[in-house]
Structure prediction request, 456 residues.
Amino acid sequence: MSNTAQGQILDFVRGRFPQAELDAAQDIFALGFVNSLFAMELVMFVEKTFGVTIPNDELRIDNFRTADSMAELVDRLARVAA
Amino acid sequence: MTTSRVTDRRSAREFVDAHIVPHADAWDLDGRVPEDLIRKASEAGLWAPFLPEQYGGAGMDMVTLGEVHEEVGRGCSSVRSLLTVHTMLSWTVQRWATPAQREQWGPALASGAALGAFCLSEPGAGSDTSGITTTATQTDRGWVINGTKKWTTGGQRADVFLVFARTASSIGAFLVPRDTPGVRVRPIEEILGTRASMLAEITFADVEVEREALLGPSGFTAGMVLTGTLDLGRYSVAAGSVGIVQGCLEASAAYAAKREVGGKPLRDLPLIQAKLSDMVTDARAARLLLAEAGRLKDEGDSATLMATWIAKYFASTAAARHASEAVQIHGANGFTPDYPVARFYRDAKVMEIIEGSNEIQRMTIAGQADREKP
Prediction:
């Protein structure tokens, strides 16, 4: 289990798709397995794991394209909440 | 006399035994749930108790909500189905609507002053949601919706519809009041089960709604609205299925204790005992799966999605199986409206179809098997 946000997000995605070889900068949408079910799982995971609420206007594809971009979103939301 | 508030399984059971069980067979024959019961459900706070207190809800947790829906399902699947679709719409408003919309609709949804219904299936598309053809076209003032929805539970009675329609980029969820010009409701009658659920076919002909009628995000996460709404509907259907199994168990145990064969009660026969033991076991197993899905929802854990699929699959197949066995235990009596098992038998079948057919569920659950391999 990783301690960084990127690492935790990657662990989650790899857990859902064990066959995928991923790194933090890789576009998960380009791999072709993102559907509405996984999108919801991913958003719920990020909100629960990092204690943030993602507003509608942040639910954009660019915020979820890579583990790095999701970690940046978490960091931004955490700073707003602080 | 004012009806007591439903706050947990025990108070739900009391409400169901007092106000639903004695009348469920009559409503089934009549093909509708009466306004008197809808009013009593409002007084009891049954419609959307999970909404926050600021909107008149009770902030009920999901585990307790599942227990309440189970109890209602034990009494009458038609009433439970009205609760299910109202829950789906109310949750979607709470999760995705603007603060102004929540202020507008929340109190009415919590009190039952406005009943909601869920419009997804169409004449040519059910579990295959990608096949829907209803469209929502963006205009300068908002949206124009065109299409026909079918099998809308509660559609004959609902005041507001949650309509899923194809936009230029995705499938969007739209809040459409029943009295909007262009909305036409046609009752669907003489169905096999849940006969009092007031099904309707609803046509939307150039229905104009404001820009804010579209709930939730657009783009890749737009599907989350439908996924989340169906997840909660599936949870309620799973709960209702547990209720059917429990109803079959209680009716069958009572009948087997009273009915004699060769001077002995039916319950002494090993083959009857086998049926009853399976009912006891499956009711408990299904209830535990439901509670696990509810606990994960309360924790905001994404694992609730799969847990709910599994609970609904297990509980609905158990309901259909045990409703059949309950009729078998009752013999010819089970074929009559004198006992509730005939209604359970008819109601149970649709649980394997709605909120995602069991075939679709098994395909989804099979994906979990792949993730659990060493």
User: Anything to note?
Assistant: The interface with chain A takes residues 96, 216-217, 219-224, 226-228, 231, 299-302, 304-305, 364, 370-371, 373 of chain B (CB under 8 Å). The first strand of chain B starts at residue 116 and ends at 119. Chain B has a mean pLDDT of 95. The two ends of chain B are 61 Å apart (CA to CA).
